[in-house]
Design a protein that fits this description.
This protein has about 180 residues and is an all-alpha fold. It is about 75% helix and about 0% strand.
């Protein structure tokens, strides 16, 4: 069985981005930076967002339960679309395409576009802005660090992160539009 063909635009982007991604991954391989990037990436796997969503009833009372279910349903929808896009576009990870880009953390799968970590970081940042803006000083820096970690660990191209951010913004805005009435 042959591997799926990637889009020609990805072949061109891979070449354009490879040098910068290699440099960023080299910076990410410094011991102190590597620890920080790995921590951010692990928090972006799910713990940060589960903690955020689970805390909504504590912060918003009865409305918090509605918000919790709202965020959960939106997350599941985002994951479904993300997986559909990722498995249809089949962009290889940078470390697979270029042996000069070191991957400093095991990837969950073979393909890189879009970045799911970044999708969720942007989506939850927008939802936090809409529902609990007092948490933005914590959520925004974490979201930026999660997005940066994906390139710094050699797991994604910059355009993967941008694609994930755009998709996350779309779901965040959809979620903002579809918010339960805050009372």
């Amino acid at each position: 069985m042959t591997a799926p063909r990637t889009l020609p635009v990805f072949d061109r982007l891979d070449l354009l981005e490879s040098q910068l991604c290699r440099r960023l991954a080299q910076h990410g391989s410094r011991r102190s930076t590597l620890r920080l990037l790995r921590l951010a990436s692990r928090l972006g796997d799910w713990p940060a967002w589960v903690l955020l969503v689970a805390s909504l009833p504590l912060m918003h009372g009865a409305t918090g339960w509605l918000l919790m279910w709202h965020h959960l349903v939106l997350s599941l929808l985002a994951i479904g679309v993300y997986r559909l896009v990722k498995t249809r576009l089949c962009r290889e990870r940078p470390s697979i395409t270029f042996c000069t880009i070191h991957c400093a953390q095991p990837a969950r799968d073979r393909y890189s576009f879009p970045s799911g970590h970044t999708l969720h970081a942007v989506m939850f940042s927008l939802l936090t802005a809409a529902t609990t803006p007092a948490l933005l000083p914590l959520v925004l820096p974490l979201a930026v660090l999660i997005a940066a970690s994906r390139v710094g660990l050699g797991l994604h191209y910059i355009s993967d992160v941008i694609g994930g951010a755009l998709l996350g913004a779309a779901f965040g805005l959809l979620g903002w539009w579809w918010l339960p009435v805050m009372g």
